[in-house]
Amino acid sequence: MDTQHGAHGGMRFDEASWEERYGATPALWSGRPNPQLVAEATALTPGRALDAGSGEGGDALWLAGHGWQVTAVDFSTVALARAAAQADRLGAEVAGRVEWVHADLTRWAPRTSAFDLVSAQYFHLPVPDRDSAFARLAAAVAPGGSLLVVGHRPSELHTGSPEMFFTAEQVAAALDPAAWDVVACEDRPRTAAGPAGHELPVADTVLLARRRA
Ligand SMILES: C[S@@+](CC[C@H](N)C(=O)[O-])C[C@H]1O[C@@H](n2cnc3c(N)ncnc32)[C@H](O)[C@@H]1O
């Protein structure tokens, strides 16, 4: 996700607020897949993927284009409609590999052990919704499958609402060490376009874990 509107200070993150945010602009995100997803999923054998908080579909469509069968979940109908329209533009083969699901991930439970990859990219929830939602996402990973959780580290682009941020270590700590191998648990620096258009240093917090087969 390339942030076009990054500051979190004073913003609300309920369904109506996200709907309003998407409705206020023709495109909130760049449409490109997120760099950590591309970095980690390129090496995986395509299978069934769940994209949690899929936004305008950049990741889901990249996965579908690389042979994955994708379930993309978001509670913004505007974002889902944009994603589905882009899927249609990419053609029937890609469009046919994505199921767009309108659901609130603080309540919606994916099928247990159903996905070879569960990806949550910049899916920041207020505490206490986060722990239970992430636990349901982890439970959806099939034996041998991967859980990829990527979040923003606070930066000039992301001020305020400190409770929305998490670290890869916090996500890893909630995984049963008897069932999971942690492959990556770290912060990765990169640059992103700031509000004035110039590049700013940011960092992602990245957890990649594999459920033991
Ligand atoms: C920061 S955006 C990231 C979108 C996408 N993953 C990307 O990287 O471009 C977070 C997304 O999560 C969605 N979202 C936030 N809370 C949600 C919830 N409780 N249930 C479903 N979707 C949610 C928002 O609508 C938004 O599309």
Automatic annotation (TrEMBL):
<keyword id="KW-0808">Transferase</keyword>
<dbReference type="GO" id="GO:0008168">
    <property type="term" value="F:methyltransferase activity"/>
</dbReference>
<protein>
    <submittedName>
        <fullName>Methyltransferase domain-containing protein</fullName>
    </submittedName>
</protein>
<dbReference type="GO" id="GO:0032259">
    <property type="term" value="P:methylation"/>
</dbReference>
<dbReference type="InterPro" id="IPR029063">
    <property type="entry name" value="SAM-dependent_MTases_sf"/>
</dbReference>
<dbReference type="InterPro" id="IPR041698">
    <property type="entry name" value="Methyltransf_25"/>
</dbReference>
<keyword id="KW-0489">Methyltransferase</keyword>
<dbReference type="Pfam" id="PF13649">
    <property type="entry name" value="Methyltransf_25"/>
</dbReference>
<feature type="domain" description="Methyltransferase">
    <location>
        <begin position="50"/>
        <end position="145"/>
    </location>
</feature>
